[in-house]
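QA checklist item 7 of 12: single-chain prediction sanity check.
[x] sequence parsed
[x] length recorded as 276
[x] structure emitted
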Amino acid sequence: MFNFSAITSSSSFQKIMLIGVISAISIPTPSLGAVANFDKLNTGFFGSSITNNGITFSNLIAGFRSSPPEFVVKSGNQFNSVFSRPNYLTFGSSIVANGNSSQIPDQPLLGGFGSMTITPEKLATSVSLSVLTTNPNFDFGSFDDSLVLQAFLKGESVGSTSVPIANFSKLNRSGKYLFSKLSLSNIIFDELQLFTPRAFADGVISLGVDNVNITTLNNKAPRSVQPSQTALNNNVPGSVQPLQTVPESQPITLLGLFFSGIVGYLVKRRQTSTES
């Protein structure tokens, strides 16, 4: 049985109030997160979407092609200094003949890329990913291009970051391949879009992606719109500072109600004592 007479000091009263407040709030707890590094997948073409460790990649835009662009998992030892061994994600097209799909013989190590949607299983609070592109001096594209990572919650933009191709780092002495990382944190989101602004005017850059690390919350991501509609209808080129998002109010727990009742009893008792 709870001993009310034991609570006599002001500090004890404050502790009871603090416990009641803490127990009345259910705070979402970050999980260990999910990492898509494609290393346990077979290399090859994956069509219009691919899921790795609960992270789904879809809605690929890659400029004009004779056949639809596809997600491709490739292996490349020369990228292992910045990508996890052995695989990474890139983009390309397959040739369909007599009902069979086959790889284009001259498929590059980094395929043409314009935009894609990245969807975690749950609400998420942070994301980071590694990217490689080809130096425009060796390939198509321009140093005026940039790569943008934008986050959405229920279809509304909650943060964005971008890196100009001119600010990428050289992967090796020749400078043929350029490397960078993009990240967002301190936000709550249910969907991401990675894109180059020129994608919506049929422009692309060569790109490879790896180590997509997303920290999630221990509750399912609510969906107010379909993933296929969110990012494509809300592309905002340029760099924007991440916005803070406040989680929805959580229900009061039974333990919180119990302590709230105790606090109310003590307040009333102290008032009665003062009046007498």
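[x] summary fact logged: The CA atoms of residues 153 and 189 lie 4 Å apart.
[ ] second reviewer sign-off
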